[in-house]
Amino acid sequence: MVCPKCDLPEIDFYCSVRTLFKTVLTRLKGPLLVILALSSTAIAVHYWLEVAEIQSALSALEEARREELFATCKLRRQLMKYKENFGNRKWSYSSMPPSRLQENQKRHELQQEHQQDCNQSVSSSYLRQAQRSQKQQYSENVAFSSEVSQRKLCQEMKCLLEKEKRSSAEVECLAKELDELREKIQQTYLESNEYVRMMRLWANSHHDPF
């Protein structure tokens, strides 16, 4: 085409721009597809690693839960044994620990020997008074031992309850974190799929000739 004013050939600007743009897109199409494939692979590997980490955390959580249940059952069995041995806060002479039982037997034997020696030199009234004091002392010792055992048992129960509360709180916290992580992974996965879809549409639309 020749310009009627200056007699010079006119340059089709739009055709030149379109040709240049088409050439650039043709050269960039290969690298863009490679970048898209690499990014998709990286995203898939990242998600796979996160899922593996979540599964390992869940396995550790389940193992800790099983250990906690085992310890709880063990403590409960010990508690039942204590209740059977101590029933109604009363100690029996045969249910005392071996060391305490031996001490009481020795004390009882010594008291009997002392009573036999005293029977020769003291009156019957003094002997009855000594027997009463002996029974009172024995009752006080039994009551004190029972109280100590009950306090120890209560402390163990409190520790067990506190441990169960802490474990329940930790499990709830881990469950919340796991739910949040799952939501985040799902959202990121949807965004990546949308990004891949848009890139494919863009690549397909620019691949077609004008």
Structure description:
This protein is mostly helical. The protein has one domain. 86% of the residues lie in helices and 0% in strands. It has 3 helices and no strands. Helix 1 runs antiparallel to helix 3 (124-207). It is rod-shaped and about 135 Å long. The two termini are 23 Å apart. The model is unreliable at 5-11 and 90-96 (pLDDT under 50). Residues 164-191 form a coiled coil. Keywords: Coiled coil. Residues 103-115 have a biased composition (Basic and acidic residues).
Note the main attributes of this structure:
3 helices; 0% strand; single chain; 210 residues; mainly alpha
- Indicate the proportion of strand residues: under 5%
Q: Helical content, roughly?
A: over 70%
Number of domains: 1
The total beta strand count reads 0
Globally, the shape reads rod-shaped
Oligomer: single chain
| Run of helices and strands | HHH
> What is the mean pLDDT?
74
| Number of distinct helices | 3
Computed over alpha carbons, the radius of gyration is: 44 Å
Give the class from helix and strand content and strand pairing. Answer: mainly alpha
The profile of the biggest β sheet is: none
Question: How are the elements arranged and paired?
Answer:
Elements: H1 13-86, H2 98-119, H3 124-207
